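thought: fold this chain, then report.
action: predict
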Amino acid sequence: MSSSSVTNSSITDETLRAQIFQRLHPRVYLERFIAEKIRPDGRTFDEWRTVSVNVGSISTADGSALVRMGDTTIVCGVKAEIAEPELDRPEQGFLVPNIDLPAICSPKFKPGPPTEEAQVLSDRLNEALVASGALPLSSLCIHPGKAVWTLYVDCTCINYDGNAFDAALLAMLGALRNTTLPKATCNEETGRTTCSRKTRSPVQLTRNFASTSFGVLDTSHVLSDPTAFEEPLMDVTLTVIVDDRGELISTTESGGAISEETLLRCINRAKERVLQLKD
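observation:
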């Protein structure tokens, strides 16, 4: 047997042992990397995964975007429908965000109705869009009290490798910026709304923002953009949403509390990140 064959065999054995150890003792496996100030995928604690955004890839949607954040891949489509406004808000349309985490995107998800994680993510995405005020619902009004636009913003995760919230929000904002609506007019006498086939106008977002998520391990180690392997091992997860002017929109913590120093550190990182994503 040649020396190269022996070397390749030993490397394969070591890789297999590492994979088995990772499955059996994931926390210890991660802590050994953290002790060396590096993460299992080779990133430093502060390093983000590569992000790409492609818009307009779904021809049947009114707007769409495909986002890749490392190996996490999410596609988003916007579909517009005409609806009657609510009585107490006659000049406001509707924005309905939703995310689907199908079984094909990760072994952790099973076939069947939407998972609790998907429902929680959908609620968080809705809160983020509402809190930002980036899309005034009054801009979706066709005729007060008669007709408004409802925008269904649907995301589907094609491949899941952690941090689905950041990727989904980025996909939703990309899809909304890509969305155009036909010119619509409402006939007050008949109550019918007609749409032009030729004239369309873009949806106007008034604010540019992004979310950045962190995982905190042992109160002192803060990992940016955690992967699917890292996420369940974190003691605390934190999501910070800021706009490109550096204004804080919201922070969300889960799993426990973090120090004020750590929170401020993450907010400053988030401000740097939103400018990177803008570029």
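thought: worth noting. The first strand starts at residue 51 and ends at 55.
final: tokens above.
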